[in-house]
């Protein structure tokens, strides 16, 4: 999930930079650009933190901690055969 967010941010960041370069020199436009860049930086920081936490979780729950073979707790029965007409 965190990697998808990171990918979206990386794809959107050139658009934010392009928008920042092509704004009119008005105070409102400058403020909007600064707000957008600050928001993108905050989102990027959150994504980075999520990735770090995810990597730590993966290192804790590595394959060496998992059991060698999965043993199901519930038993299932085989489905019964169904006859179909031959002359369709």
Please provide a written account of the structure.
- The chain is mainly alpha-helical and 88 residues long.
- It has a domain at 2-59.
- 61% of the residues lie in helices and 0% in strands.
- It has 2 helices and no strands.
- It has helices at residues 2-21, 27-60.
- The two termini are 48 Å apart.
Name the helix and strand elements from N-terminus to C-terminus, one letter apiece: HH
Strand content: under 5%
The portion of residues assigned to helices is 55-70%
Indicate the mean pLDDT.
76
C-alpha termini separation: 48 Å
In this structure, how is the largest beta sheet organized?
Answer: none
Oligomer: single chain
* Low-confidence region ranges: none
Shape: elongated
Find the structural class using helix and strand composition. mainly alpha
Counting DSSP H or I runs of 4 or more residues, the number of helices is: 2
How are the SSEs ordered, and which strands pair?
Blueprint: H1 2-21, H2 27-60
């Amino acid at each position: 999930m965190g990697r998808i967010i990171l990918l979206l941010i990386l794809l959107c960041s050139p658009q934010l930079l392009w928008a920042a370069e092509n704004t009119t020199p008005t105070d409102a436009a400058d403020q909007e650009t600064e707000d957008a860049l600050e928001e993108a930086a905050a989102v990027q920081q959150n994504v980075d933190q999520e990735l770090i936490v995810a990597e730590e979780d993966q290192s804790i729950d590595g394959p060496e901690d998992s059991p060698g073979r999965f043993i199901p707790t519930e038993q299932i029965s085989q489905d019964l055969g169904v006859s179909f007409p031959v002359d369709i």
